[in-house]
Write a structure and sequence with these properties.
This protein is an all-alpha fold. The protein has 8 helices and 2 strands; from the N terminus they run H-H-H-E-H-H-E-H-H-H.
Length: 170
C-alpha cells in the first residue's frame, strides 16, 4: 500500500510527532518517520526563500562574512594591513581585526582573476602550454652503438677505480 501524498519535511508534520512521543504511541511515531523524505536536502532548514539569489540565501543562512575584495597590486587601492596587529597583539587580535576590517586579497600576476580561475581548473599540461608557447621536447632515442660505447667507457672508468683501490690496499 502506498500513500498518495507523502510528507516531505518535518514542518508538514506539525506537533503530531511530539505528541506521539509524549503519549508513547510508538506506532504513530514510526509511521510519521517512515512518511518523511529520506533526502536531507528536503529538510525544512534547507528550504530557501525565492526572493533572493541562491548565493545571497546561502550567505544569509550560513552567516558568512562578506567576500574579500581583490586587488592586483598592494598599495594601489585603499587597503587595510592587519600584519602589524598580528605582530603586536597576536593571533586572536588578528582574527578580530580581520573580521572587522578584512584585508583585500592580493592577486599577483599579469592575468585577470577570471583567467586564473579558468587556468586553475585546467589540466597541468594545458597550463604549461598556456604559460609557455614552446612545445615539450620529445626525448630522442640513442643509437645502439652510442649506448654500447658509453657502457664500455663506464666499464673502463670502473676498472681504473678498482685498480687504484687495489694499489692503495697493497
Amino acid at each position: 500500500m502506498q500513500i498518495a501524498a507523502g510528507l516531505v519535511n518535518e514542518s508538514q508534520v506539525g506537533d503530531r510527532l511530539a505528541r506521539a512521543v509524549e503519549e508513547g504511541r510508538r506506532g504513530d511515531f514510526g509511521l510519521i518517520l517512515a512518511m518523511l523524505s529520506q533526502d536531507a536536502r528536503d529538510f525544512a532548514e534547507f528550504w530557501l526563500s525565492t526572493d533572493e539569489s541562491v548565493e545571497q540565501k546561502l550567505h544569509k543562512h550560513f552567516e558568512l562574512p562578506p567576500k574579500q575584495t581583490l586587488i592586483a597590486k598592494p598599495g594601489a587601492e585603499d587597503c587595510m594591513d592587519n600584519s602589524g596587529v598580528f605582530r603586536t597583539f597576536g593571533k586572536k587580535a588578528f582574527h578580530l581585526s580581520q573580521a572587522l576590517l578584512p584585508e583585500p586579497v592580493v592577486i599577483r600576476g599579469d592575468l585577470p582573476a577570471d583567467m586564473l580561475i579558468a587556468l586553475n581548473n585546467c589540466a597541468p599540461t594545458v597550463q604549461r602550454r598556456f604559460y609557455s608557447d614552446a612545445r615539450p621536447t620529445i626525448p630522442t632515442h640513442q643509437h645502439f652503438n652510442d649506448i654500447l660505447e658509453a657502457q664500455r667507457a663506464l666499464g673502463k672508468l670502473m676498472e681504473h677505480a678498482d685498480n687504484r683501490n687495489l694499489m692503495a690496499m697493497v
